[in-house]
Amino acid sequence: MSQPSEFHWLLAVVQSIDVGVVVLDRDYCIEVWNTFMENRSGVLPEAARRQSFFTLFPELDEEWFRRKVESVMTLGTPSFTIWEQRPYLLRFKNYQPITGLEDFMYQNTTLLPLRGTSGAIEQVCLIIYDVTDVAVNRRQLQAANRELQRLSSTDRLTGLYNRGHWEEILRQDYARHRRHESQSALVMFDIDHFKSINDTYGHQAGDAVIQQVAELIRETMRDCDVAGRYGGEEFVVLLRDTDKQGAFTFAERLRRVVEAHEVQHDGRPIRFTISLGIADLSQPSTGHAQLIEWADSALYASKSAGRNCVTLHGHAARDQ
């Protein structure tokens, strides 16, 4: 096969393959611009040739791209980018019907050094791969996994952590306490006379009360705190880096917020209170389960003292 016909054959392949092919000289001027690039950019080959790559794509990070190309030309080795690190090199619109929810085309790219007849590297070839399908599928899978993780760790009614998840967080926090002597406190509380609410207003009203209590917790606690549903009408809040006095301040504030709150259900106002127990790590303990036992015992003391009050483990209930 003669050299001209071989060149023609190679050019036909470059034009027809479903990847972007751009050849740049050392001044970053375009020498080859294949059909893929024409279709995605809307720029005809005759308009692209001899144009500066940066003039054609002013949004490109020129400093970064020059470093990549200079490295390829100096070392004589290829360089790559993947969509996970840089979603795209050139922002092309995504026209694929299956993945049409994405505005742009995700891209992997390769930069190849091209040697002339003298053996010197005179040009670089940029190859752009459309990996939108792969990227979208991966992102959808990751989103699905995150949602499964969320569902497995949260209580469906309240959106707070379920018992298995918050207890594991408490276990980890207790291990941190053992290593670094950090302080934490656990607040446990339940809704007073909750059965009476269900009996009087119905179970849907009871669910509404539980949901609004969860919302009041979120509004009252800090971002670093951890709230969960213990079960039924019982809740817990892990207060990190908090001593018993700080925990009491939080618990009392939450008690007052709930006492002042009114749930409207089917046009009927529902008022209720909560009883709270607090345990902290200022006393020697054998494990995170003991902290739960102490908080539960303090909660029981609040119930015995007449409800709608806060009790610190090892102290008498604080009357309101």
From TrEMBL:
Cellular component annotations (GO), alphabetically ordered: plasma membrane
E.C. number(s) listed in UniProt: 2.7.7.65
Residues of the GGDEF domain: 182-315
Record localization: Cell inner membrane
PANTHER family on file: DIGUANYLATE CYCLASE DGCM-RELATED, REGULATORY COMPONENTS OF SENSORY TRANSDUCTION SYSTEM
Cofactors that this protein relies on: Mg(2+)
GO MF entries: diguanylate cyclase activity; kinase activity
Name the record gives this protein: diguanylate cyclase
Reactions performed catalytically: 2 GTP = 3',3'-c-di-GMP + 2 diphosphate
Organism: Stutzerimonas degradans
Pfam family of the protein (one): PAS_4
Keywords: Kinase, Transferase
UniProt-listed InterPro entries: Diguanylate_Cyclase, GGDEF_dom, Nucleotide_cyclase, PAS, PAS-like_dom_sf, PAS_4, Rev_trsase/Diguanyl_cyclase
GO biological process: cell adhesion involved in single-species biofilm formation; negative regulation of bacterial-type flagellum-dependent cell motility
SMART domains, sorted: GGDEF, PAS
